[in-house]
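Researcher: Please predict.
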Amino acid sequence: MRNAACSAWRNLFNEHKFAFLTGDLGFMALEPLRDLMGPWFINAGVAEQNMVSAAAGMCKMGTEAWVYSIAPFIYARPFEQIRNDVCLNRLPVKIVGNGGGYAYGSMGSSHHAIEDYGVLLGLQGMQVFVPAFAEDVEPAVCQMSASGQPGYLRLGRCEKPTDMAVPPFSAWRCLSEGDQGVMVVVGPVAGSLMQRMRDLPQDNRPALWALGVMPEGFTNVPDQLLQTIKNNGLLTVVEEHVAHGSAGHALLSTLAQQGVTPKLLHCCAQGYPSGTYGSQVFHRLESQMDADNVLRRWQQESMCL
């Protein structure tokens, strides 16, 4: 998705000027953007707190500003600056975290972002965009640029099956039809679920929905999705994020306010059960949120309804 983002920023810069600040990262990917932007592209060094404050100052003076780093380095290290300088002043700084979830694999917990959007959505005015596929990145970038609010873009590795088309990026979209309830997914894990679900007949699989924008998605649940949850009684949510502050819990709260109280099957990040580190695939398996485990657990819960 990083290459797709670079292309999107290049197209955006050709439309209007903005500042792009990187925390000494983006090598072998962002060079085309650097070459196009010239002095508008700033390597702020390993100084994320200063970078966020500088971006807030640019926005205060009327210059659109984007800040980029590995996900935990761009939301956790400068959290105070995001809270005080950006969000409390409602400045539209655009924060980009590359490698959401367990994407950085064996580099360990310091490089993982499994609580990022839960943390950031607690701040005033923050919007979160989570593309599921590379094709989602450019429309997400355009929506963020047009917004007058702070924003966080969580990038990962596109896992879309090569021969499958997906609907345009939005807060909510149905990725595949199914007659047995509903499954909501956040982020790139949607691709592996799409791949696995097409092996199942439509009458023996859930409809797969992607949530891409928060908190908008929590307040505007589509009627079709809401009705399916009501009829089925089971809400399955798959996200590479810990349970606390998750999309799954936020959706339950939204539904409860409308008198809908489904059972939640939450396939989410479990941290580090074995105390060891491995690939993203390894960590998903440990959390039982890989496609095979998700469908096995869904089938078991469905049989209990």
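Model: Residues 70 and 102 are 12 Å apart (CA to CA).
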